[in-house]
TrEMBL record:
Coiled coil regions, renumbered to chain: none
Pfam families attached to this UniProt entry: SWIM (PF04434)
Protein name in UniProt: Zinc finger SWIM domain-containing protein 7-like
Organism, scientific name: Dinoponera quadriceps
Any one GO MF annotation of this record: zinc ion binding
Gene name in the database record: LOC106744584
Length: 172
C-alpha cells in the first residue's frame, strides 16, 4: 500500500500510537519537506495529506505558520538550519505565539508542547498525535521565509533553556 492509500485509510488516528504509526507520520512529514525543497512551496497534495492525517489541528497550525507566529530563538545572528542533536545539546529553541497570544517554547524536532491541548489530547486521552503549535513549528522550520528569528545573549538563552527543561520535567 502506497503513502496516498495509507493517508486515505487513516480516517482516525489510533488511540495508541505504535511505532508503525510514528514511522508513517515521519514518512509523510519527510515527503512533504522534500517536496517543499524542490518546489519552494507546500503543494496542495501535501497540505491535503497533512490535513487528512491531523485534521483541524493541522488547519490551526497552518494558520499560525501563515501568520508568521513562529520564532527561532538562539544566540546566533541568523536562523540556524541544521538539525538539533538532542534536547540536552539544544542551541536553538522555537517559540510559537498561539491564537490567544500565549507563547509556547518548543524543543526543536520534538513532539512536545506545554499547551493544554497537548497535555490533555496527546498525553492524557491520546485523541491526538500532536498540537497546532508543534505543527506550526514544523512548517516554519521547513519554510524559513516565514520563520522569525530572535537573538539572545548566551546567558539569556541558557536561562530560557534551563526554564524549559525544568518545566518539561515538572509537567509530567
Amino acid at each position: 500500500m502506497n503513502l496516498d492509500q495509507q493517508v486515505a485509510n487513516a480516517t482516525s488516528p489510533p488511540i495508541v500510537y505504535d511505532q508503525k504509526y510514528m514511522n508513517f507520520v515521519d514518512t509523510l512529514l519527510k515527503e512533504s519537506a522534500d517536496e517543499f525543497e524542490k518546489e519552494r512551496k507546500f503543494s496542495e497534495s501535501s497540505l491535503l495529506k497533512l490535513y487528512k492525517l491531523f485534521g483541524v489541528t493541522f488547519e490551526r497550525g497552518l494558520d499560525l505558520y501563515e501568520r508568521r507566529r513562529v520564532t527561532q530563538i538562539s544566540t546566533s545572528k541568523i536562523i540556524i538550519k541544521e538539525p538539533c542533536k538532542s534536547a540536552n545539546e539544544a542551541n536553538w529553541l522555537i517559540q510559537v505565539k498561539g491564537h490567544s497570544g500565549a507563547l509556547y517554547t518548543l524543543f526543536p524536532e520534538t513532539n512536545y508542547c506545554t499547551c493544554d491541548a497537548f497535555r490533555y489530547q496527546v498525553l492524557k486521552d491520546r485523541s491526538a498525535f500532536t498540537c497546532k503549535h508543534v505543527l506550526a513549528a514544523w512548517l516554519a522550520s521547513i519554510d524559513n521565509e516565514k520563520l522569525l528569528h530572535q537573538q539572545l545573549m548566551q546567558k539569556q538563552f541558557d536561562s530560557l533553556l534551563l526554564y524549559q527543561v525544568s518545566y518539561k520535567h515538572d509537567a509530567f
